[in-house]
Structure formats: structure tokens, C-alpha cells
């Protein structure tokens, strides 16, 4: 059995791994990243005719965004959870609307991918090829996200996709206890291999206290959020901590995602809290409501999470220059984005104009990834003979952890540094 890293090797994003065995070609994710001009960057090419199965861990575009390009003429069975497929369908439509000129697929290929989908239920094994079985388990990252245990031709492979072992308001932590202790190989993300996230309870208290202070001072709080995962977690956190006495508006693609996730209450940690949050929050369907949202102290949750576009920019231009208001960023801010610019310089260039931030500006680490401590504990769960492969990580941040673990006797960790690398079992 060979494993080729088509993307996500030596980088965060565009994850794609090809498992090649005697009778099977199994693709694990096929995501895209975006360059400085917001053009999609794809993993290395794989011939669809060489694939017997594809597994999709979750709907974020850095794991899913390239998949429709493989469904131009071949219909490879696509295994994923029903919620991931429904969310992916929405994310593809949005990507085509925003970046369609640069994408090698249209809605026709998206429909082909969707029609090739075979649903997975957590904990239930499914045959995926010749002498191959996949079992999905909750990954704790976003709703519908799944880790995979793949048994193929006498080998056992664990693939995490993105995972989080800590409970959040939306999801239970990853179901790591159902994973085998002695697989042949574990392919795992290590995005935050050098960073520990703050304790969740303390983070929520600081965040909601800051929100309340702005509201009680007569201001509004803009919370630019990733549409899928972060927006829902922020909404639940606000409602859980009693901030719902003020209007909470939800704008952009997060509105549709809220409704889709609400149809899968069995996947949520607290379905009652989620139902309450949907009932309390106010959807923004048009410009009229959007303008009205800023006429009184309120909380506004909207994409884009890095202020690169979407309704968030509309609100930002209106709210940023008033000291009464708050701009609270609960997401990672990539370099060369307006979100990163305002955190580092206090202003952002939006639509050619410089907007200086006079509003209260804060960043909160609401990550949905495992932090350094969780990654280390996860690695140590497996037997010494299990090969551990770290992907979806910058080698400069993960190499120190690899060195530390090697000193402790864990010399079974491999860190691919460039797409195209291949290992054999």
C-alpha cells in the first residue's frame, strides 16, 4: 500500500491524500486553498478512473472544494455523512458564484458529485471497494465532520480530516475512543501543533463579557465569522450566556447553514439550545433589514470571517469608526486579509478606501481544531509501531513537536513537506 500526498503536505489547506493498493484507489478529501488574488489552488491531479472510492471528511472548501472537478466524466462513489453532502452542495454553489471563472467545474459537475454520494452513519462499517471497508466517527470539528477508519487489503488506516477533541457548545468532542489502538498508519491534521487554545469556559466568559459591555454602552457588536461552524458556535455561546436580551442578527450564507444544521439535531451536543438560538436570532434577508440592524444596540454575526467580502464589509464600514461599537474577530485571520490588517495596524483598505478602526477591537480564539496538547495526547493513544503522518500543517510550527516526541521515544512520526511525496507501508 502506498500513500501519496496530493495536497496539505507542508501547508495548511487543500488537503488531499491518495491511498493506492493492489485493488483500490481511495481518495481522502480533495480541497482547495486560495492565493492572494482569491483564485483557487488545487491539489495535484489524480485520474478519476484510478479511484474506486472517495471519502470526504467535511464540507469546508479546504477539504472539499476540488471534488466536483473529478466528476466531469467518471462517477466514483463518494462516501460522507448526509449533513456534509448537504452543506457541501451549498458551499459549492457559493464558490461558483464567487469564483466560478477560475473553477474547472460548474453546477453540472456538482450535481454529478452529489448523485454519486453514499451516506455514512457514525459507527456503521460500509464496503467501499474490493476488500475495503470504511467506518466514520464524529470528528468534533463542524456539524457532520467525520474521521475515517479504513480497512483495506489487510491494512488499517485512520484519517482524521480536521478534528477537535474538546466539547464546544455545538458539538461533542471527537469520538477518539472508538478508533483502533494499533492501526498501521494515522493520517492526522496538525494545524495548531505549536499552539494551545485557551480553556473553553474562560474564553466564553471573556467573550460574552466584552459583548455585553459594548451593548450596555449603547453600541453594536460586529462579529465577522466563518459561515460554516463558527457562526453557529458564536450564536450558541451568546444565547447560552444570556446575551439574547439584545437583538442578535445573522446575515449571509450563515442563515442557510443555520437552517440546514437544524435539521440534524441528533448530531448536536444540545439540540434544545440550538433550537432556542434559531428562534431568538433574526435572519437578515435584505438590505432594508441590514440597515435596520445598526439602528439600535445589537449583535451582528455574518461572513466573511476575515472581512474579505460578504455582508461583513457592509457593517464594518458603518460601525468601525464609532468608539461605542465593537469589532470582535472569533476566527483565524490569514495574512493579507482585512481582518489581519486591522488587528496588526488598526485600519483596513476596503473598496479602495482606508477605514480606521475606532471601535473596540478584539480577537478571540474560538478554534474548532485540536490544539498542541490535544494533538500530542492523540498521538500517544496509538501503539509505538503505528506510523503517524502529520498533514494540514506548516512544518515550521509542527517540527518542534515532532522533535519533542522523538526525544520521548515516539520516533514513528512522519512530516511530509511538499505535495507529491509518497510513502509505502
UniProtKB/TrEMBL annotation:
- Keywords, A to Z? Hydrolase
Keyword Hydrolase belongs to the record:
yes
Q: Does the keyword Iron apply?
A: no
Specify the domain of life of the species encoding this protein.
Answer: Archaea
**Residue ranges of every copy of the Beta-Casp domain listed in the record:** 231-342
Q: Which GO terms describe its molecular function?
A: hydrolase activity; RNA endonuclease activity
Q: Which Gene3D superfamilies match?
A: 3.40.50.10890, Ribonuclease Z/Hydroxyacylglutathione hydrolase-like
| InterPro entries noted in UniProt | Beta_Casp, MBL, Metallo-B-lactamas, RibonucZ/Hydroxyglut_hydro, RMMBL
Q: Please name one Pfam family that this protein belongs to.
A: Lactamase_B_6
Which segments constitute the Metallo-beta-lactamase domain?
Answer: 13-218
Q: Which PANTHER family does the record cross-reference, listed alphabetically? A: CLEAVAGE AND POLYADENYLATION SPECIFICITY FACTOR FAMILY MEMBER, MRNA 3-END PROCESSING FACTOR
- Name by which UniProt lists this protein: mRNA 3'-end processing factor, conjectural
Native source species: Pyrobaculum ferrireducens
Amino acid at each position: 500500500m502506498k500513500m501519496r500526498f496530493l495536497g496539505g503536505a507542508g501547508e495548511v489547506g487543500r488537503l488531499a491524500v491518495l491511498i493506492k493498493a493492489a485493488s483500490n484507489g481511495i481518495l481522502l478529501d480533495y480541497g482547495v486553498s486560495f492565493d492572494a488574488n482569491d483564485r483557487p489552488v488545487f491539489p495535484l491531479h489524480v485520474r478519476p478512473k484510478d479511484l474506486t472510492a472517495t471519502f470526504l471528511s467535511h464540507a469546508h472548501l479546504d477539504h472539499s472544494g476540488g471534488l466536483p472537478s473529478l466528476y466531469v466524466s467518471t462517477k466514483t462513489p463518494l462516501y460522507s455523512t448526509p449533513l456534509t453532502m448537504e452543506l457541501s452542495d451549498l458551499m459549492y454553489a457559493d464558490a461558483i458564484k464567487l469564483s466560478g471563472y477560475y473553477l474547472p467545474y460548474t453546477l453540472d459537475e456538482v450535481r454529478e458529485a452529489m448523485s454519486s454520494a453514499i451516506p455514512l452513519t457514525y459507527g456503521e462499517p460500509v464496503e467501499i471497494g474490493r476488500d475495503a471497508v470504511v467506518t466514520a466517527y464524529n470528528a468534533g470539528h463542524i456539524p457532520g465532520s467525520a474521521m475515517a477508519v479504513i480497512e483495506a487489503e489487510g491494512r488499517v488506516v485512520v484519517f482524521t480530516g480536521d478534528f477537535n477533541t474538546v466539547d464546544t457548545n455545538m458539538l461533542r468532542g471527537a469520538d477518539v475512543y472508538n478508533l483502533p489502538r494499533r492501526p498501521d498508519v494515522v493520517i492526522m491534521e496538525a494545524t495548531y501543533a505549536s499552539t494551545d487554545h485557551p480553556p473553553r469556559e474562560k474564553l466564553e466568559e471573556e467573550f460574552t463579557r466584552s459583548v455585553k459591555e459594548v451593548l450596555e454602552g449603547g453600541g453594536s457588536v460586529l462579529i465577522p465569522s466563518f459561515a460554516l461552524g463558527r457562526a453557529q458556535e458564536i450564536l450558541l455561546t451568546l444565547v447560552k450566556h444570556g446575551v439574547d436580551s439584545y437583538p442578535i442578527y445573522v446575515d449571509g450564507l450563515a442563515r442557510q447553514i443555520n437552517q440546514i444544521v437544524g435539521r440534524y439535531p441528533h448530531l448536536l451536543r444540545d439540540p434544545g439550545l440550538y433550537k432556542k438560538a434559531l428562534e431568538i436570532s433574526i435572519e437578515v434577508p435584505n438590505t432594508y433589514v441590514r440597515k435596520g440592524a445598526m439602528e439600535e444596540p445589537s449583535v451582528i454575526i455574518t461572513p466573511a470571517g476575515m472581512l474579505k467580502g460578504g455582508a461583513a464589509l457592509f457593517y464594518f464600514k458603518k460601525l468601525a469608526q464609532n468608539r461605542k461599537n465593537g469589532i470582535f474577530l472569533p476566527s483565524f485571520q490569514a495574512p493579507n486579509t482585512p481582518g489581519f490588517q486591522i488587528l496588526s495596524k488598526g485600519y483596513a483598505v476596503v473598496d479602495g478606501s482606508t477605514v480606521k478602526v475606532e471601535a473596540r477591537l478584539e480577537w478571540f480564539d474560538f478554534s474548532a481544531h485540536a490544539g498542541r496538547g490535544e494533538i500530542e495526547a492523540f498521538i500517544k493513544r496509538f501503539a509505538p509501531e503505528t506510523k503517524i503522518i502529520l498533514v494540514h500543517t506548516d512544518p515550521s510550527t509542527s517540527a518542534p513537536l515532532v522533535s519533542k516526541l522523538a526525544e520521548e521515544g515516539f520516533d514513528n512520526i512522519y512530516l511530509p513537506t511538499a505535495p507529491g511525496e509518497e510513502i509505502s507501508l
